[in-house]
C-alpha cells in the first residue's frame, strides 16, 4: 500500500465515534414514564487534524406500572455538534442546564431552560479569577439544591510573587511559577468560585488552607458549605495526571470561610460522590507515593455521625473470575436512586466490567451480559452514568467499535439486567481476537510476590492477506500501571486492517490483576516487564502457528516506548522494526526534567522524599535499568515520535537514542511535534 491508502485505512477506523458522557432525564406521564438519554461522543477528523464532540438524544418509553421495563425506544434525532463547551451540568430539578463555554478568548457561563438562553455571564470580563478549569483532575460544575448557585474551579488571580493586592507595576513576571505538570501546565493556583445566579455575581471562596490546591468540588447538603479534594503542594508540586498517589484530603468549607479536613491524613483521595438523600459521601482512597496508579479502596462517610468506614477494600490478589478492585475514577453519577448501591466500572485482568456494590452487605456484583451470546461480542464494558436507576454503558471489543446500551439496575440480587441497545456502530470488523493468560517461568517469578500471572489480547485478520504467515506487531501500554482491555482500539484496528496481527500485553504491574501485581514491578523495571512481554510474544507464537516469527515489530509510548527500546536491544535478532512514542531512554538523565520525579526513584527501587538528592548509587541503578544501556546492540530500524512539550518524558530522551543509533549507522528516524 502507498501512504494515501494507509492514511485512508487509519482515517476509517479512527473516525468512528466513541461515547464519553451521558445524562438521563425522567418524566412521568399519565400512561407511561419517559426517559430521555443524552449522550456525548468524540470523533476524530483527519481533514481538520483534530477531535470534535457531538451529542445525540434518545427517548425511552417505559410502562407506568413497571417503569423498569422499557417498552419502546424511539429513533434518535440528528447529531448536534457541541461547540466550545468546556463544562455542563443539569440542575437537580432537571429544568436548567448550565454551560461554561469558550468563544475566542472569552469564557461565558450560560444558563439554558426550555425556552432558550435564560442568563449569560462573561466570566472573563468580570475578572474575578483566571481561566475556568475543565480538566478531569480539578474541574467541576455543580448546582446547589436551591438552583440559585453554581460552583466551579478556576485559576486564581494573583501576583507573580503570590502576594494578593500587589499592584500590576510591581509584578515580576520572570519569577518562576510552579504548575501541575503534564497536561496541566496552565494550572497553578486553583480557587473555588461560586456564582450567585439571582444577582449575577461571582465570588471566590475564602478559607482554603494555603498549602492546598482545591478541586473536584461539590455542594454539601443545605448549600451552606462545599466539599472538595485538596492536593498538598508544599514543598513543591508533582505531576498529577495519571497519578493517583499524591497526598490529598477531603475538606468541608463553609461559605463564611471555616474549613476542616474530614478524611485521614497522609493518604490520597479523589472522586467525592454524594448520595441522593445527602446522608453519605463516598470517595476513593489510596497510598501516597509508591506506584503512581494503584488499586483504591472506597470509603463512605456518614454525614450525621461523621464516621468513616470502608465500603470496598484494596484487593491484593483476586481469584480468577472474581472482582479485582477499583482502578479508575468513579462516574459523576454512580448512586442508585435509593442510595444503597454504588455502580462503577473497573479493570478485571484483560477486560473491563461494570459492577454494583451494596453498601450494607458490601457484596460486589458484575452487571455485564456475560452469560449471553453478546459476551462474545463485547469484550469490555464502561459505565457512563446511572441516573434514576437507568445505566448507560459503552460496550466494545477489539473487533466491534463502541455500542451505547442501557439497562435498569436489578431490584434483587438474583435478578439480571435486561440490556437494550441505543446505538450500534455503523460498521463492525471481521477480526479474530482472543485473550491469553501467561505464567512466568520459575526463573522469572517475583521472589517478594510469587505466583503472579499476567495476560495479553491477540487480534488478527480473519483471512490473511496472502498465503504466507501473518506478521505480528507487539503493542505495549505505557504507565506502567495501566491496562490494555479487550476493547475497541483504533490503532490496533488500523494495523489489522493493513494485514498485521497485534498482541497487546498486560505485563505484571498492569491494573486489573490486584495490588500485589502492581507492587511487584517496583524496582524491577527493565527486567521483569521486559521478560513478561517477551514471554507473552513467545506464548502467542507457540499457540498460533499462523503468526510469522520472522516478521515481528514492537510499538509503545512512554513506558511502552521504554520497553519497546529495551526489547530491540535485549533481543536484537528477534524484532525487525520498532516505533516508540516519547520513550524513556535514560532514567538517570530524566531525573531532573520529569514532572514525576518521585516515580523515577520509586521505579528503580528507592524511597522518595521531597528533599531527595540523587546519589551515585541512584544514578547508576537508573542507568542500568535503562534502554540506553543496550543501545549498541540494536539492529532493527527505529522510528522515534517525540512531543516537543512533554513534561513527563522530555524529547531529549528520544534524542539520546537517536544520536547513539545515528553514530553507529543504524536506521533511525526522528519526528517531533511542537
Automatic annotation (TrEMBL):
UniProt-listed InterPro entries: 6-blade_b-propeller_TolB-like, AARE_N, AB_hydrolase_fold, Peptidase_S9_cat
Coiled coil regions in record: none
SUPFAM superfamilies: alpha/beta-Hydrolases, DPP6 N-terminal domain-like
Organism: Cyprinodon variegatus (Sheepshead minnow)
Subunit composition and interactions: Homotetramer.
Record's protein name: Acylamino-acid-releasing enzyme
Domain Peptidase S9 prolyl oligopeptidase catalytic: 495-670
Record keywords, A-Z: Cytoplasm, Hydrolase
Span of domain Acylamino-acid-releasing enzyme N-terminal: 43-425
GO molecular function, one term: serine-type endopeptidase activity
Reaction equation(s) it catalyzes: Cleavage of an N-acetyl or N-formyl amino acid from the N-terminus of a polypeptide
Family per record: Belongs to the peptidase S9C family.
E.C. code: 3.4.19.1
Top EC group: hydrolase
Subcellular location: Cytoplasm
A cellular component term, taken from the record's GO annotations: cytoplasm
UniProt record, GO biological process: proteolysis
Amino acid at each position: 500500500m502507498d501512504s494515501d491508502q494507509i492514511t485512508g485505512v487509519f482515517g476509517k477506523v479512527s473516525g468512528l465515534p466513541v461515547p464519553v458522557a451521558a445524562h438521563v432525564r425522567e418524566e412521568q406521564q399519565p400512561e407511561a414514564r419517559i426517559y430521555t438519554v443524552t449522550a456525548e461522543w468524540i470523533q476524530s477528523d483527519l481533514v481538520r487534524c483534530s477531535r470534535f464532540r457531538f451529542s445525540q438524544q434518545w427517548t425511552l418509553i417505559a410502562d407506568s406500572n413497571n417503569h423498569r421495563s422499557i417498552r419502546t425506544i424511539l429513533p434518535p434525532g440528528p447529531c448536534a455538534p457541541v461547540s466550545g463547551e468546556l463544562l455542563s451540568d443539569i440542575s437537580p430539578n432537571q429544568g436548567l442546564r448550565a454551560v461554561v463555554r469558550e468563544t475566542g478568548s472569552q469564557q461565558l457561563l450560560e444558563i439554558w431552560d426550555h425556552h432558550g438562553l435564560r442568563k449569560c455571564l462573561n466570566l472573563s470580563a468580570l475578572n474575578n479569577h483566571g481561566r475556568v478549569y475543565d480538566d478531569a483532575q480539578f474541574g467541576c460544575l455543580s448546582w446547589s439544591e436551591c438552583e440559585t448557585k453554581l460552583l466551579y474551579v478556576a485559576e486564581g488571580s494573583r501576583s507573580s510573587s503570590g502576594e494578593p493586592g500587589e499592584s500590576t507595576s510591581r509584578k515580576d513576571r520572570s519569577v518562576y511559577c510552579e504548575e501541575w505538570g503534564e497536561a496541566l501546565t496552565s494550572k497553578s493556583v486553583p480557587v473555588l468560585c461560586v456564582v450567585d445566579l439571582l444577582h449575577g455575581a461571582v465570588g471566590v471562596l475564602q478559607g482554603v488552607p494555603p498549602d492546598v490546591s482545591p478541586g473536584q468540588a461539590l455542594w454539601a447538603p443545605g448549600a451552606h458549605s462545599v466539599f472538595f479534594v485538596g492536593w498538598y503542594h508544599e514543598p513543591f508540586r508533582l505531576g498529577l495526571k495519571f497519578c493517583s498517589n499524591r497526598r490529598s484530603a477531603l475538606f468541608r468549607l463553609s461559605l463564611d470561610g471555616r474549613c476542616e479536613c474530614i478524611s485521614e491524613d497522609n493518604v490520597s483521595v479523589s472522586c467525592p460522590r454524594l448520595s441522593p438523600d445527602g446522608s453519605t459521601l463516598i470517595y476513593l482512597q489510596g497510598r501516597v507515593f509508591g506506584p503512581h496508579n494503584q488499586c483504591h479502596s472506597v470509603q463512605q462517610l456518614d454525614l450525621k455521625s461523621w464516621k468513616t468506614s470502608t465500603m470496598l477494600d484494596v484487593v491484593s490478589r483476586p481469584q480468577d473470575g472474581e472482582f479485582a478492585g477499583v482502578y479508575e475514577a468513579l462516574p459523576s453519577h454512580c448512586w442508585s436512586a435509593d442510595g444503597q448501591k454504588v455502580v462503577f466500572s473497573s479493570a478485571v485482568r484483560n477486560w473491563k466490567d461494570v459492577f454494583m456494590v451494596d453498601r450494607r452487605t458490601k457484596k460486589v456484583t458484575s452487571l455485564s451480559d456475560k452469560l449471553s451470546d453478546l459476551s462474545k461480542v463485547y469484550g469490555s464494558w464502561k459505565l457512563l452514568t446511572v441516573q434514576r436507576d437507568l445505566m448507560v454503558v459503552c460496550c466494545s471489543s477489539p473487533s466491534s467499535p463502541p455500542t451505547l446500551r442501557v439497562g435498569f439496575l436489578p431490584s434483587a440480587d438474583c435478578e439480571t439486567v435486561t440490556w437494550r441497545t441505543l446505538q450500534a456502530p455503523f460498521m463492525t470488523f471481521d477480526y479474530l481476537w482472543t485473550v491469553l493468560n501467561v505464567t512466568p517461568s520459575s526463573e522469572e517469578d517475583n521472589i517478594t510476590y510469587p505466583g503472579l500471572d499476567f495476560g495479553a489480547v491477540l487480534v488478527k485478520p480473519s483471512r490473511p492477506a496472502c498465503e504466507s504467515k501473518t506478521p505480528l506487531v507487539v503493542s505495549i501500554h505505557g504507565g506502567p500501571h495501566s491496562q490494555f482491555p479487550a476493547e475497541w482500539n483504533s490503532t490496533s484496528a488500523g494495523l489489522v486492517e493493513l494485514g498485521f496481527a497485534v498482541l497487546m500485553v498486560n505485563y505484571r504491574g498492569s491494573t486489573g490483576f490486584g495490588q500485589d501485581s502492581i507492587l511487584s514491578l517496583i524496582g524491577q523495571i527493565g527486567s521483569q516487564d521486559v521478560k513478561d512481554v517477551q514471554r507473552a510474544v513467545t506464548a502467542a507464537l507457540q499457540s498460533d502457528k499462523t503468526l510469522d516469527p520472522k516478521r515481528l515489530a514492537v510499538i509503545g509510548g512512554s513506558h511502552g516506548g521504554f520497553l519497546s527500546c529495551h526489547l530491540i536491544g535485549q533481543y536484537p535478532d528477534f524484532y525487525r522494526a520498532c516505533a516508540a512514542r516519547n520513550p524513556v531512554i535514560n532514567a538517570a538523565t530524566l531525573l531532573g526534567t520529569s514532572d514525576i520525579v518521585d516515580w523515577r526513584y520509586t521505579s528503580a527501587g528507592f524511597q522518595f522524599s521531597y528533599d531527595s538528592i540523587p546519589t551515585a548509587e541512584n544514578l547508576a541503578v537508573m542507568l542500568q535499568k535503562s534502554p540506553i544501556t543496550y543501545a549498541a546492540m540494536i539492529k532493527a530500524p527505529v522510528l522515534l515520535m517525540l512531543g516537543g512539550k512533554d513534561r513527563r518524558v522530555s524529547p531529549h530522551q528520544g534524542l539520546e537514542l537517536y544520536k547513539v543509533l545515528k553514530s553507529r549507522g543504524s536506521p533511525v528516524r526522528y519526528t517531533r511535534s511542537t
